[in-house]
Specification:
Elements lengths: L7 H10 L4 E10 L2 E9 L9 E8 L4 E6 L10 E8 L7 E7 L3 E2 L2 E6 L3 E6 L21
Antiparallel strand pairs: 1-2, 2-5, 3-4, 3-6, 6-7, 6-8, 8-9
Amino acid sequence: MSCKKDNSIAQNLDNNSNSEAKVTSVSVTSIENGYSFSVGIQSPDKGCDQYANWWEVISEDKKLIYRRVLAHSHVHEQPFVRSGGPVKITKEQKVYIRVHMNTTGYSTKIYTGSIAKGFKKSTLGNTFASNLETVEPLPNGCAF
């Protein structure tokens, strides 16, 4: 709430909270050699200067299992879903699915779970396994 008549303080707070991307859904199908993940993402894309540039599946012990690089921004498609795989995990293995912004890094709004028990919304510190930001595959530019 703002004490100012023009609500500029409240507006700035809202803008800061909306600068983070988030995972909005996860669905999984079995494919040869693993699983295909379809991940829903909502992100404050503005073009190549600010966009969600990948989503990834990571293990509880901070290892990258799979990364789906996003080659362009999704300014006019929000939220959006992108699939990727094969993701090679066991049915019981607990994993984290998170999204990364080219400007602000990892989101804290993730999904977690396993194939056997399903996936649900959760939170994870944006510095958890932050060293993975430099691990291949990485985006090779932005198309638009």
